[in-house]
Amino acid sequence: MKVLDVVVTVLLIIGAVNWGLVGFFGLNVVAAIFGDATAVSRVIYALVGLGGLYELFSVTFGYKAMHDRWCEFSTVKH
Hints:
The chain is an all-alpha fold. It contains four helices and no strands.
């Protein structure tokens, strides 16, 4: 699951940076690279949206499991 968490995090960073650029400068990087409303850009937007939903449900309902996945080696037992 760590791989999925990393992929989702990368997607959310891409989405956040893209929306920040749209908000501040009116520049949509995904549309500039892949075209406006093309199949590829729509897939990217859909993946970012699914990543957001995954993260929402991970944080809301699966926080303990996510914490255990990421912190399994950080607890040292004496």
